[in-house]
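Our preliminary data section would be incomplete without showing what the modeling component actually yields. Below, a chain of 335 amino acids is followed by its predicted structure, encoded as tokens that our downstream tools consume directly.
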Amino acid sequence: MRTSNNLFKDIIGLLLIGFFLYLFFFMDMKDFSEKIPGSWLNVNTIFLSIVIEAVPFILLGVFASALIQTFVSEEKIKKFLPKNAFAAIIPAAILGAIFPICECAIIPVVRRLIKKGMPLHVGVVFLVGAPILNPVVVASTFYAFNGDPIIMYGRFGLAFVLCIVIGLLMLLLFDNKNQLRWTKNELQGRVDTEDEQPATANKWKATFYHASDEFFDMGKYLIAGAFIASLFQTFLDRDVLVALGSNEVLSPAVMMAFAYVLSLCSEADAFVAASFGSTFTTGSILAFLIYGPMLDLKNTFMLFAYFKTKFVLAFMAVVTIVVFAAILIFQQIVL
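Predicted structure:
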């Protein structure tokens, strides 16, 4: 049974939808738009184009993620991974390419897998690889960049290699020692609520509930990211943009910081990145597309909630250094 809090959210959502439908059908926007400065109309145009292009892929991703969360157990995933520490890394990366789980949902999944016996470094490979390598992200990137081979091979080829490198480095640093934060209930030997699922639960109903919750959770980050990107494109001085975007060392760092702050869903970030394609270098666009799904502001909070502080700080440093170094090398060799 849904809680009163969820029911209140649903009512608010329906009222907002009704309000926007009223505005759409009955409000004359012509006179209103004439009073708005042209720059803000440009913000609106860029914002809507990003959101409208991204929404179908978010819907596809949340339903795929919800189906996996409801119907695929962690034990089934664990069965396919070899027990050897090094041999398990590549299958973990391949596993990430199969399951469309974005960074919004991957951290709790990885935590559950580690609790059930998955090695820490294998969990790290899955953590950084799955949000980029999954088929929904491949499709959205292909659509956003019109199948640009450099972007496609650069994003997914580098992501596959880098998730393995990051996993190996975390293995060297922590040697698979326990880095999870344990709740009071877990320490007392009770069942963790995140692993509980009533046997009589309607799985399809649970799938739709999970998908709707995840869609609205992702949606706010997409809207915030699209709005900031549209402001960035409209109001930032073009000379500053060109100076930042043309610098092969500075522009990847700027776009990595931008990806971290925006905290976009990996199923939608390609559309935001494509809006900067005429200003920033290809290397910096790749830095945005690779770094953001691996590490951003919203999943940093989740990491600190689920893992020990020392591990999270080391993970953040390793991901940042490895991605930045890889982009610089890629620019020198390929671009």
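The chain has one domain: 54-178+216-333. Residues 187-196 have pLDDT under 50 and may be disordered. Preliminary results of this kind motivate Aim 1 of the renewal.
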